[in-house]
Amino acid sequence: MTIRYILACLVGLAFTSPAVAAEPIVIKFSHVVAPDAPKGKAATKFKQLVEAMGGGRVKVEVYPNSQLFKDTDELAALQRGDVEMIAPSISRLALIGATEFEVFDLPYLFGDYDSVHRVTEGEEGRRLLTGLEAKGIHGLAFWDNGFKVMSADRALHEPGDYRGLNMRVQPSEVIQAQMRALGALPQAMSFADAYKALKSGAVDGTENVPSNMYTQRMHEVQKHLTITGHGYLGYAVIMSKPFWDGLPPDMRSVLDQAMQRTTAYANEIAEEENFVALAKIRAAGTTEVYEPTSLERDALINALLPVHKEMADRIGAKTVEAVYQAAGFRQP
Ligand code: LMR
Q1: What is the 3-state secondary structure (H, E, C) of 89-123?
Q2: Exposure string (b/e) for 21-49, b if CB count within 10 Å is 16 or more?
Q3: Cα 17 to the center of its chain, rounded Å
Q4: Which residues pair with 289 in a beta bridge?
């Protein structure tokens, strides 16, 4: 009996022995916000559910705060297979040519969370996620964050107050058009760089949801915040399609069930998290929080609604119409 034969038998035994547990499947889940922001909490919840339901066969490693990839890089990383799961803000999918997703950025499109859910949990939401398969992406769900506010180092009451301000935005063409409609100068940059740019004065202001502003301490470097509610921020929760396709079917079903429960959790906490974050911003005393009058709000709506028409071709008229229908939006 040669040494090589004995070694081969030992290796064979190791693979067949029930005492040797298989290595768990690892899902690296990268995101850009703080662990205690709504998306961060939902990511942790997903990890807990999957690991409990997967019976030790799967491990989810969550990387918050752009630790692994910035939002400018994470989609390409997913497509390369360098990360298995991400949850970019919905409109970031335009960065890989899925410009339809920018429909979610249209100003004053959604009146409330229910109107968002009629899209994200309805036929149009499913169609949008399925369309990503051709880009090597498996869409799992949409998660809410909330409705955005505007902030700057000057008071923002009327549309004219935005004129000439450098405003940090996500790279969405719709959001950039929205800032231009107000006479502001959109500066697209990653979320990871936003706080520094606000602090150094490289930009004068920004838009975001209160939970992101508070957890990134943006309120410490912004003197004024106006509760405009002019747009919605939510997430597309997505996985690498080759990774998904390679999973055993029973594991895909565990992930689907865990995702269903996580989505319910994410959408349940989002509104309250933003409410609490706004209260904490007020309490911090570094930022004057302003509630616009109804006249000021109407003036902002009038200034921003032309963006819908301007962006319809880029998004696709059929998508815009389908989302209007589902959301119950009517052009005034
Ligand atoms: C932003 O870049 O402002 C947000 O998309 C960050 C996030 O993921 O909530």
Answers
A1: EHHHHHHHCCHHHHHHHCCCCCCCHHHHHHHHCCH
A2: eeeebebbbbbbbbeebbbbbbbbbbbeb
A3: 44
A4: 225
Q: How many CB atoms lie within 10 A of CB 51?
A: 17
**In the sheet where 166-169 sits, what is the strand order?**
185-188, 166-169, 205-208, 149-152, 224-226, 288-290
**Which stretch of DSSP H or E encloses residue 265?**
helix 249-284
Which token pair is 262?
Answer: 């996580």
Cα(177) to ligand 1 centroid in Å equals: 18
For the CA of 89, the nearest atom of ligand 1: 5
Closest residue by CA, ligand 1 atom 6:
191
| pLDDT per residue as tens digits for the range 76-98 | 999 999 999 999 999 999 999 99
Q: Is the pTM of this model over 0.90?
A: yes
**Atom 8 of ligand 1 has which residue's CA nearest to it?**
89
Q: Which helix (H) or strand (E) holds 188?
A: strand 185-188
**Distance between CA atoms of residues 148 and 156, nearest Å:** 14
244 C-alpha vs ligand 1 centroid, how far in Å?
25
Which residue ranges have their beta carbon within 6 Å of ligand 1?
A: 32-33, 39, 71, 89, 145, 170, 191, 208, 212
